[in-house]
């Protein structure tokens, strides 16, 4: 018997800005992702689009026009859910309008209908690094409280429109990346002050609570979660300074889920704010709103672990913090440590901390895939990575963790958020396109396609 419960959600996850393309089609306005080349993580952008430069995300893998073909392949693998995002600028091209764009609404109607036709539940992120560009240029992004109203209006429109189609929602993608990559997370410039970053985060906490409230009012049967990047971090040594510094680093990541899942700012934040000269503008009723409307579940990404040393240098990418090498771990072709046991540790950490359902909405293997002379892609490293992680997820379920589902990041090759490349591939489905935008966009199955199909068919028993 499988350890995974009946009805466990198996599937894959993408983001609109990394897959759809059609960036200016059918009334869609530009988002912050549309002005970035070389990966949104860096935040390097001109806030304008240079017609003489190539932007990988502008066509991406053209999911906008290929979604029927792609959804049929997901159905062939046996997906019971599929996570994607609604591109906010398809619905409100600038973000501050009062009337939505019908063509954008219709696209997601058609996409959700296609998924439901095959019995695949849509799992929808409301904001996945896709803040409307106008809200950054003219309002300063989430530093400006006006974005709370704009986001709430957008949520109200899509909840009403898709109330009979979407049961699983998430508000902001990887909100804890605000301190690490603020342009992606909050449409706030890199180099912003701690005051600006935490003020932007507070506005997003208020927006998160209002979205939760609206969702429960409009779609009573729905579940709405928050989403964080929670690849983990270990102390580099048993020096108590390293242990305490690592705890602080982790706690600053979990700060975001603490507020959204528990409904209050953690006890240690007044000291942080005092030491960093942060004085949040908190409107009357904000804290009561946050307390009254916490998230139903915690969605999170897990890719790897790192070692951290007090005062040691570390940097950030889409997988999380980059620290020192762990001699006990092998690495992916992209240099990311592979730590499946760390995945089990994180599941238990979060289950103990929040006592609410968990949803693994990103886990996957990014590598370079070679097509052999017979047209076959033997991506055995991807299969090994998936096998190890699903095995440890099963152990976490046996440990008592309440896990709703698992969506592999990038079941089809998409543009990398970290580097803006096609070369870094995650998919079970290969897309013929290179870093320069050349290729036919033809879809073909990798060896991992049939492997994941058997995993789902056996409810995680046959790995």
Automatic annotation (TrEMBL):
One of its GO terms (molecular function) is 6-phospho-beta-glucosidase activity. Transmembrane segments: none annotated. It comes from Buttiauxella brennerae ATCC 51605. InterPro entries: GH, GH_1_N_CS, Glyco_hydro_1. PANTHER family: 6-PHOSPHO-BETA-GLUCOSIDASE ASCB-RELATED, GLYCOSYL HYDROLASE. The keyword Hydrolase applies. It holds the Pfam family Glyco_hydro_1. It comes from the Bacteria. GO terms for cellular component: cytosol. Its EC number is 3.2.1.-, 3.2.1.86. PROSITE patterns: GLYCOSYL_HYDROL_F1_2. This is 6-phospho-beta-glucosidase. One of its GO terms (biological process) is carbohydrate catabolic process. Belongs to the glycosyl hydrolase 1 family. Keywords: Glycosidase, Hydrolase.
